[in-house]
Amino acid sequence: MRAFLLSFTLLAFLASIVLAWEKEDHEIFDLVSALEAAEGKGTSFYSWLDVPSTATTPEIAKAYRKKSMILHPDKNPNDKTIHERFARLGVISTILRNKESRERYDFFYKNGVPKWRGTGYYYSRFRPGLGTALVFLIFVSSGFHYIIQRINYRTDIERIDRFVKAAQQAAWGPKLVPIEGQRKVRVNISEGRTVDMVVDAKNVYILDDSGEKHILDASTASRPDFMNTWFIALARSTYYRTLDRVSPSKEHVSPETSEGDESSSEAPGSGTATPSEGRVAGGKRKRATKKR
User: Where along the chain is composition biased (Basic residues) (predicted)?
Assistant: First the structure.
């Protein structure tokens, strides 16, 4: 939950910054990038016109006329980039001679052009295809799914440790001095809900109504695995279903299906393994051999 709140806060902060850029800002970003690519890194609107950043509008107009005579296409017939440079000069001169546009540029001139300019800015220039967008969304959502798995795994481990310690305290006392042999105890897992457990010198077991024991330790928690994220799990499930349809006479059992059957099966009538879902830690159970 804490990780989710931090992620949401970060996204909201970035969104507030990105939404602050307007169409005119994006045009300035393009001009800055194009000017540095053509005239050299670090070239600014002012340095290209050869005027200080404090130049007045008449001074900028005068510098523009002087520069335009140098970059005029008629005087540079062999320069293939001259038309583009000449047009860029006119746009830059217009920005600097307009009070509002110049204030926008001066802000980025003093503080620097942002490296991240918003998804809309990059999308409008690179136009990723539908396939690229889908792959990106699948990758991001699968990454978040894996993070959730890790969070759930840590939560399960903490819950298991809490239940194991509670059972050992009930069997051995508050000092947790191990006693030989097995002891059956009843542990309160939530308000008004208890579960029978068996404690011996090495392990703690959950005892179901049939008398069968299921070991309770860290191995019963489901470990995070990128192969179990939603897209890969869906692809594997679809693959095995396709095999079943193509070869109905053969049995194809997917690893996650067989493993899921074992993890989701519960002892008859126990129903008290976890406070929220009826299992102690949301993972797999190991069965101990029932002693006769």
Answer: 282-292
Whether residue 252 is contained in a domain is answered as no
Reported as a single tens digit per residue, the pLDDT across 98-125 is: 999 999 999 989 988 776 555 555 555 5
**pLDDT tens per residue, range 28-59:** 888 998 999 999 999 999 999 999 999 999 99
CA angle 272, 275, 280 (to 5 degrees): 65
The DSSP output letter for 182 is: -
The domain boundary, picked from 127, 158, 175, lies at 127
Question: What secondary structure letter does DSSP report for 280?
Answer: S
> What mean pLDDT value characterizes the chain?
79
Asked whether residue 37 falls in the same domain as residue 138, the answer is: no
Cβ-proximal residues to 228 (8 Å cutoff; 6+ apart), any chain: 149, 222, 256
Enclosing domain of residue 107? 15-127
* Assigned domain for 259 exists: no
Give the pLDDT of residue 278.
44
% of the chain surpassing 90 pLDDT: 44
Q: Pick from 260, 253, 254: which is nearest to 236 by CA?
A: 254
Which residues neighbour 34 within 8 Å (Cβ) at sequence distance 6 or greater?
A: 88
Average pLDDT, integer, range 172-177: 88
48 in the same domain as 105: yes
Residue type, 141: S
The closest of 101, 116, 3 to 45, measured between CA atoms, is 101
